[in-house]
């Protein structure tokens, strides 16, 4: 590590939730930081669905970043409503509504939360269109970022906040994400209150869930009358290739889903029939739990890059907490190395415990031993082609 008196050069790789909140807290304390983001601009791609931020994690992080009030102005407490419906009849079999004033897990669109974090940063903090391809550890302690465009940047600390397929992670760990056996196939509707009032009523203000036989359907209200949902299935990762499907062939994916969910209630199958756009394939990957590494000076990880886990409602919350914890350590510990060690000593055990619980949670949520009920219909579908 360079020992000169100058301020450490901190590079955050990845302008997702964890990386941006880390930069925000550093700037709140007058520290300089640069975020390198591979997307070309803030509006480069849709940011995905709604996230619930928990009072004891995500909201704690936003309060530390001085952003809780701005979050509350955008959040939807009514989105905490949970509905469970019977897969065969679509009758409501479980229902929880938030109490008046309850803010334990209010929902916010991921795009709104990211926008809020971006707006909180000094102009020019995020360098858009800068995809990192790797990190070199130089003998003098400098960390060299290599970019996909062939350029490099030398810094003192690289923060890998670049998500599931982190290009920073190989600098500290050989671990790679592995497929869980579960895939989410995403669908969505605009203007649901006017064009799909029946489906909007089924979903309510928050999340609707139906599941049986190792598969499920979840649908969730987002802002601006949008509903986003997922067919959740235990299938081989290459299910679409095995079925001879192109994922871009919306009618073929629809037929596949209708065959897989044969016998389910018509209103639930309507989620597939009326899907506005294409279907998005989201195979779920996880890192080993725990994902531990020997401390490497000048490089660390946060969020999904450090502890990718099944999406059971904690990943974004933990990424925010990691970002705040790392930044706080960087402004309170005597030097960068002490700060990173302090951060890692808190983040690693916290995430290991939660990652293990989420893996068990996924098995409980879509039990593997129920999957044979899914597999025959999967095989029947293949045979029918
Ligand atoms: C279907 C689904 C639903 C989910 N629902 C929830 C939920 O309800 N609640 C919850 O808490 N969590 C949820 N999660 C998990 C949550 O999305 C993640 O845990 C969270 O986004 C992790 O944040 P992050 O900042 O670590 O990474 P990300 O949000 O993945 O951000 C990484 C950033 O790095 C950038 N990047 C990637 N590679 C490079 C590169 N090489 N160079 C430069 N930049 C790069 C990306 O463009 C991105 O902007 C869900 C996940 C999925 C898949």
TrEMBL record:
Residues 10-205, 299-333 form the FAD-binding domain. It catalyses: a tetracycline + NADPH + O2 + H(+) = an 11a-hydroxytetracycline + NADP(+) + H2O. It is an enzyme of class 1 (oxidoreductase). InterPro entries: FAD-bd (IPR002938), FAD/NAD-bd_sf (IPR036188), TetX_monooxygenase (IPR043683). Its main location: cytoplasm. HAMAP family: TetX_monooxygenase. One of its GO terms (molecular function) is monooxygenase activity. The lineage of its organism: Bacteria, Bacillati, Actinomycetota, Actinomycetes, Pseudonocardiales. NADPH binds at residue 45. This is Flavin-dependent monooxygenase. Monomer. GO terms for biological process: response to antibiotic. Its EC number is 1.14.13.-.
């Amino acid at each position: 590590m360079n020992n000169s008196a100058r301020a450490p050069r901190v590079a955050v790789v990845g302008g997702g939730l964890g990386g941006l909140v880390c930069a925000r807290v550093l700037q709140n304390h007058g520290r300089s930081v640069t975020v390198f983001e591979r997307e070309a601009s803030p509006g480069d791609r849709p940011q995905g669905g709604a996230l619930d931020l928990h009072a004891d994690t995500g909201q704690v992080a936003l309060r530390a970043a001085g952003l809780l009030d701005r979050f509350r102005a955008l959040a939807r407490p009514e989105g905490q409503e949970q509905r469970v419906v019977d897969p065969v009849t679509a009758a409501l079999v479980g229902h929880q509504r938030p109490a008046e004033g309850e803010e334990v897990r209010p929902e916010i669109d991921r795009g709104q939360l990211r926008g809020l974090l971006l707006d909180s940063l000094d102009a020019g903090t995020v360098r858009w269109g800068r995809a990192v391809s790797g990190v070199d550890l130089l003998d003098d302690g400098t960390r060299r970022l290599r970019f996909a465009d062939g350029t490099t940047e030398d810094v003192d600390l690289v923060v890998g906040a670049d998500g599931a397929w982190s290009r920073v992670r190989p600098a500290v760990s050989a671990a790679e994400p592995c497929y869980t056996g579960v895939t989410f196939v995403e669908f969505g509707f605009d203007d649901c209150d006017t064009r799909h009032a029946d489906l909007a009523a089924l979903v309510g203000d928050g999340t609707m869930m139906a599941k049986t036989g190792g598969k499920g359907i979840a649908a969730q209200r987002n802002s601006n009358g949008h509903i986003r949902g997922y067919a959740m299935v235990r299938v081989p990762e290459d299910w679409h290739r095995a079925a001879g499907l192109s994922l871009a062939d919306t009618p073929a994916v629809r037929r596949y889903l209708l065959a897989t969910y044969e016998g389910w209630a018509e209103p639930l199958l309507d989620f597939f029939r009326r899907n506005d756009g294409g279907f998005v394939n989201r195979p779920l990957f996880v890192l080993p739990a725990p994902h531990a590494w020997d401390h490497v000076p000048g490089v660390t990880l946060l969020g999904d890059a450090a502890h990718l886990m099944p999406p059971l409602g904690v990943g974004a919350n933990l990424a925010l907490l990691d970002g705040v914890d790392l930044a706080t350590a960087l402004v309170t510990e005597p030097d960068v190395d002490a700060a990173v060690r302090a951060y890692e000593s808190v983040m690693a055990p916290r995430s290991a415990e939660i990652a293990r619980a989420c893996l068990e949670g996924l098995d409980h949520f879509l039990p593997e031993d129920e999957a044979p009920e899914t597999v025959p219909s999967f095989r029947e579908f293949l045979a029918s082609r």
